[in-house]
Amino acid sequence: MALHFVVESASDAVAGDVVSLTGAEAKHAAVVRRLRVGEEVTVGDGAGVWLTGAAEEVSPTRVEVRIARRSEHPAPSPRITLVQALAKGDRDELAVQAACELGVDEIVPWQAARSVSRWDGPKAVKGRERWATIVREAAKQAHRSWLPDVVAPVSTRRLAERASSQRVLVLDPTAAVRLSEIEADGRDLMLVVGPEGGISDEELDRLTEAGAERVRLGDTVLRTSTAGPAAIAVLSVTLGRW
To answer: What is the number of other CB atoms lying within 10 angstroms of the CB of residue 129?
Structure first.
């Protein structure tokens, strides 16, 4: 399969144009992936544009790609949003990476009551930037035409407010309804995944009162790093994406 790169400036390119990869993208292509002149690659803008072309010039500082074909992919609908509680170590980052590969459309960092990791002040900006970088690299590896959005961290109150405009599904291992049993109704879907210690009773009550539905994946309890990606896989079947 051809190597894939993301260049926001590629949005206006058409067949016959040359798209340039510079900076980290060029170095990755030339040094890490050992791209060669004449090799076919694909380039996207992260917002639906998909270009196919061949490398005309390759160096660690600049890669020139001559575009042969252009297509545009519509954004997935309904959208799947993952609300991932902050977790210790790299567990939340593992969830973000896998969720992106599996097709999530938006990622929302959640400062849950039992989150060991805390994103306060400047750390919130750095954390969001870190997740956005993980998403970008995962999207390239998965050859996704749309880059998922990574928004600013939210509180439980903000999550409850969003429940009025989206269908919110809270992953709760004690819930009576399985995620695989729900039927799509056309609304965007938001999956809420708690931290290592689980979602507190107060948080569950607040989200449920706002209209959220409690669902479980099965009879076992998954880690916070795997619950979200597993749920996205289930929803991808439900929505006909897979």
So the answer is: 11
